[in-house]
Structure formats: C-alpha cells, structure tokens
Design brief:
The structure is a homodimer. Chain A is α/β, with parallel strands linked by helices. Chain A is built from 14 helices and eleven strands. Chain A has helices at residues 22-37, 61-69, 85-98, 118-126, 131-138, 142-157, 161-175, 189-193, 222-228, 257-270, 287-296, 305-310, 327-331, 335-351; strands at residues 4-11, 46-50, 76-80, 104-112, 197-199, 202-203, 212-221, 233-242, 279-281, 366-373, 378-385. At the A-B interface, α2, β3, α3, β8 and α10 of A face α2, β3, α3, β8 and α10 of B.
Chain lengths: 388, 388
C-alpha cells in the first residue's frame, strides 16, 4: 500500500449557519484546505463527499459541491455511514491515493441540519438504527439508545452521573478555546448535573447539539506530499467495522463492539498500540459514549473510563488528551463533517498548531480519530502520525 | 495497483417486489454472488452498498444489509452518485482490494422504489440535479432534462423519433430473453412510436421504468481470485467524472461530457480503445441516452449513434452489441442496483454464460460498463476483461 499523507486541512465555523447554502458551506472548508497546501485545482484526482443528507433539500450534494468548488470534471460520489460519514469519506479518499488511482484526493464533509425543527431532527436521528423494527415498534429515540448504555455502565461499573457531567465540563472547557466551536462557553459541573433530563440518566448537557458545518482534507501520495507540504501527517492505518442494526441483538450494553474491532484493525495496520497515542478525538455524541470509547480503544481497562476523566488524564498534560477541540459536545456535530473535522483537529495537534491552551504535548507524534455511526452501527478508527 | 477480479456475481429479479424488504432483496444477490464463487463469509474484508435511498423507509440500509447477510463485523458504508450509485459501489470495493486493504470485497447495489406513488417518484427523480435552482424555479422533471438533449440531437444530426424507438424495440427484444428483466415482452416500432408523449420527443417507451431490485459482485485480489474461481473477469480500469449540477451551465446538449471524460480515463487505465470492446452495457435511462452514449464512448463518430442502431450494429452479431440484458429500459432500473447489475451482465457475457439468444460473440475478451448519474452529473465507466 502506498503512503498517504494529510497535506491540507480546512474547517468552517460550526453552529447555526443560516448565511450559506450547503455548497457554499462546503466550499469554506475546501478553499481553506487547498490554500493550506497550495494545491492547484487541476491536481485533484478524486473527490469524496461525506454527508448523511435528509436534513437539507439537495439530494445530490456531491455534484453541487463539485460545481461550486470548480471541480466540474473531477469524479465524485457521496458516502454515508450515519454519523461516521465523514470518516467514510476520508477512507474513500485514502483508498483512492493508496491504490494509485489518484496522486491527490480530497475528502469533504458537510451537513446543514438546523433548518429542520427539533422534533423532525429527533425523528431523523431516531431512524439511525433498524427503523422498521425498533423505531416504529418501540419508539426508541437516539438519546434513549445511549441511555441504555449509560444505565448498563452505571450498573456494572458504578459509573455516576457526575462522571458523565465531567466529560461535558471538559468539552466546554476546550470548546471555549476553539474559535470554530459551536459553544464557546465554560460550564460548571453543577450546571451540567442540574440540566434537564432528556432520557435518564442523560441530561441536556450530556448530549451534543444539532449543527451546521463542514471540514475538508487534501490527501496526497508520498511524491505529491513532499512537493505540497513541509508538515505531512501520515495516515498510518484505518480500521472500520460494524455491528447489528438492531440494538436488541447486541451482546452487551457497556461498550461498542464496533469500536473495539475497528481499533484493533487500525492498530494492527499502523503497527502501534493504544499507549503510543499522544492525542485523540473520540465520538462523544453523548458523554457516556466518550467514557466507553476510552475503554473500547484500550486507553484504559474496561470499566475504568470514568476514572480517567476523574483524574484529568484526558486533559492537556494528562496521559491521553481527548477532544481538545471541544468534541461533538461543544464543537458541534454536523453529521457528515464530523469525521473529517476530527482528522483536521488531530492533524493540527500533530503539527503543533492548535489554539493556545488546547495544544497537546506531542511525544510519539501519533494521533487517533474515533468516529461512530448510529449507536455503534458503524465505527471508523484512523491512526495519524508525523512519521511515515 | 494490484489486480482485481470479479469472481462472484449475483442478481435478483428486477420489477415490482412487494414480497421482500430491502435487506432481504439485497440478500438475494449477496447469497448468489457468494455461492457463485464459494467464498466464505469470513473472507469478506469490506462491503460497500450502492443505494440512492429516499424511496424506501430505512435511512441506514448499509448496516441492515450487513446484519441480514451475517456480515455484522465487516466494515461497510453506503455510496451514492445518483443513478451511478451502483458503479460507485463497485469502484469503492475495487479500491479496497486494489489498495491492499482487503483481499476480498463485496459491492452490493439495491433500491426499492415501487412503494412510492408515481408523482412522488417524479418529484424525487426531478431533484436529481440542482434542486433549489432548477427544479424549484423551473419545475424541470427528469424526462424534460433528457428531452432537451433529444431535441438538440435531432436538430443538429437529424436524429428521428424512429431512431429512438428502435433503441426501445432492441431493449425489449433482449429483455424478453432475460428471466431477471422487469419487462419480458417484445414490442413493435409502431407501438413505441405511438405511445403516450411524456416530454416531447420522449414517449412512454423511450423511458425506463421505476423498479425494485438488487445485484452484487465479489471482487478479489489475484491470489484470492486464483483460489476462488476458474473464470475471473478482471477490472482493467475505472474512469469517473462529473459535470455541472446546473443543466443551464452545460456547454452543449448533444452528448454528456462526463461520459466522454470518464471513458477517456477508463480506456487509458485499461490501455485499450473503444474498438477493442466486444460487448457493453450503456446507461439507457431514456433511449436518447443510449444513442449519445454510443458516440460519447467512441463506438462511432459524434452524430452517428442513430446509424449504429439503424444498421443493427449494437445487436448480437453486430460490431458492438449493447444492452443484451434489456438495458435499463426493459431490465429495469432500481437506481443503486443498476451499476452493479451492469458488471454482473458484462461478466456473464465475458464468461459466455448469457441466456440463449442474447450471448455476444467474444473476440478480444473485453467488455465495458457505462453508468450515468443524474443527467450526466456523474459518470462511471468500467472496463472488464478476461485477461489480466
């Protein structure tokens, strides 16, 4: 397999974006990613757009994004793996370069979700599973699915509501330092704990918001990377897996099998272990999801996720800083953009370019991106490194 | 780039399928493709599902298809490039094997469209373009887009309504020999010509139907292919391109630039020319589209497509037989399945396994798949060959 590097990164402001259409929103990141490495439009050999769709009007966003960006004769497609659509786009662009199809490929992630009212959003999110069987029959919504996991984790490992709220406080702490984040305001543990219950034990501050936003990366072969940048960030391995569509068919509710499996594959491909990781982004659609991710990714033993956050080990200066961009929780979660945004963030961290106060200490030069679709229906884990 | 072969092919009956859900429908092809080469479930390293979605309830079909097929721990995603979604899935599986990510990968295409009433279908198809600008502002439907091309082609090259109807008669002729086709009934030139006008000059028999159906292929590396089959069909090259989302920004209306560009790339990758092709499937969503494809793919000079069909050169025994499975017109067009179905058909032809009366004469052992998304918004051309 050929070497593939992230050579250009771009990221829009996340939040409520009524000022732009979907193609304009995508272009904000496309332009920044291209400017970041000075790549010429004509060098782009393939484009992949990550977008779940359904929240905005355009059903063929890929060709619209291409047209607006001036890529009218570049082949493209849209990929969807629920909330992991962005990582699926990164994988597609990666395979395009790794296989030799293209020397330079672009992955773009975009979603425009805030035009839809909250009730419709809850309906659309709830469909992310086995729609006909579990959503229609039992009326389970997305927070309820993750609440099942939270309750099981509390029951088996003594995890508390405070532990979950600590994840939210950390997210807002770093979101406040990230000018591209949707929420840039610190919160207290008390505020998180006393927020409105959505689906017990999950409260308002345990949940990520509905967001608009985009992110883009330019990926390049070794030859092209050498020409385009002095700070390549290499994709050392991508692991991906899936799990049952029906929640009722899961073997347990204290972790995501897809995460454990995808990370095992990614570590093997990258020839590293979890202890080598300097900095990570984890899929914290709900706070319980971040705690489970620590465990499923091997950052700690099963059941010890809460201890990691209690001890401050996932903050700057800790053993394994996680979501220093604010995470889905504070940065926002425009579905198709999220996975690409994570690669942008970890690349920034490995390049030492994160905003003041939220830059991790880089020792091994290794970062990890963890992106989940649905309730563990899909999982993509990407290992990035400063060295090839 | 590593060699990649089609080693297993599967295809469901196309038509109105009220007897199965989307996962069951996909499985009909998945099982046949796996049985075709005897591959074990555990050997499948990645799955890609081609499905445009929107016509059926499940928004996350990829994980459902995986669950039903027993691929619960295999990574998957859905890809969409409008009516070229199936080819986008084939390309993704191809890149997975070509890059070395997987030894064996599966591409599955599925769509369930007939549950939706005709008016909603017309609305959904019409959105395949620049929705907010052209569909909302001008109310252009899909037949109207292709009628623009038909009128331009008639004006510039003297193409007639009879020429287009001849394509339909040919499609029904071969569809009648294909037990998996939606329409298995011959029609006369007179019947086609006198059918109801949909958008002049296009009539009912110039248009492909709304369909349910699925198709699947198992792709393998050289080592795996040698082990799994005695009749590998090699993917010699895939070219893909796109064009403006807005029809008003096209340079002319007598051909699809995306087809010309994608085929140029595919021929270059495969190191062949159009004259080497023994048999092809062309994207005949409307009869005019097949005539333009002959020209854009280089099977004849620009403007001479009608002559090819008039002279019977695209029938069995002709210079370049096209759509011997009935094409989209008679076989049916379940959007996400179509591109995969085309690879199944051309593989069958190259293996000499097509049904009686519709087997092309194979000289060079080379076949071509042409799959268009939208009105030339996307185009994928895949060159297949009996030799590596």
């Amino acid at each position: 397999m050929r070497g593939v590097a992230v050579v250009g990164i771009g990221h829009s402001k996340f939040g409520r974006r009524t000022d732009v259409g979907v193609a304009e929103l995508a272009f904000e990141s496309v332009k920044r990613a291209m400017d970041d490495c000075g790549v010429d439009r004509k060098e782009i050999g393939s484009v992949t757009l990550g977008s779940a769709g359904g929240w905005y009007e355009e059903p063929l966003p890929a060709v619209l994004v291409n047209e607006y960006a001036g890529f009218e004769d570049v082949g493209t497609m849209r990929v969807e793996a629920a909330c992991a659509s962005g990582s699926a786009a990164v994988r597609s662009a990666y395979l395009s370069v790794a296989s030799g199809e293209a020397e330079v490929a672009m992955a773009v992630g975009v979603e425009k979700m805030t035009e839809v009212d909250t009730l419709t959003s809850v309906e659309l999110m709830g469909r992310s599973g086995s729609y006909l069987w579990e959503f229609e029959n039992y009326g389970m919504t997305f927070p309820a699915y993750y609440a099942l996991y939270a309750v099981a984790h509390m029951g088996r490992y003594g995890t508390t509501e405070e532990d979950m709220s600590r994840v939210a406080v950390k997210a807002h702490h770093y979101g406040a330092m990230n000018p591209l984040a949707q929420f840039q305001k610190e919160i207290t543990l008390e505020k998180a704990l006393s927020s409105q219950v959505v689906s017990w034990p999950l409260k308002l501050y345990d949940a990520c918001p509905i967001s608009d936003g985009s992110a883009a990366v330019v990926l390049a072969s070794e030859d092209a990377a050498r020409r385009l940048t002095d700070t390549p960030v290499w994709i050392r391995g991508i692991g991906f897996s899936s799990d049952s569509a029906n929640m009722s068919r899961r073997s347990d509710y204290v972790g995501l099998r897809a995460t454990a499996d995808a990370s095992r594959k990614a570590y093997a491909a990258a020839k590293i272990g979890p202890r080598d990781v300097d900095v990570a982004t984890c899929h914290d659609c709900f706070t319980i999801a971040e705690l489970m991710a620590y465990e499923d990714l091997g950052f700690c033993a099963k059941g010890e996720g809460p201890k990691l956050v209690r001890d401050g080990q996932t903050e700057v200066g800790g053993r394994i800083p996680v979501n220093l961009d604010g995470g889905l929780k504070a940065k926002g979660h425009p579905i198709g953009a999220t996975g690409v945004s994570m690669v942008v963030e970890v690349s920034k961290q490995l390049r030492g370019e994160a905003d003041r106060g939220r830059q991790a200490q880089i020792r091994n030069g290794v970062g990890l991106v963890h992106n989940v679709g649905g309730t563990g229906h899909y999982c993509y884990v990407t290992v990035l490194s400063r060295s090839r």
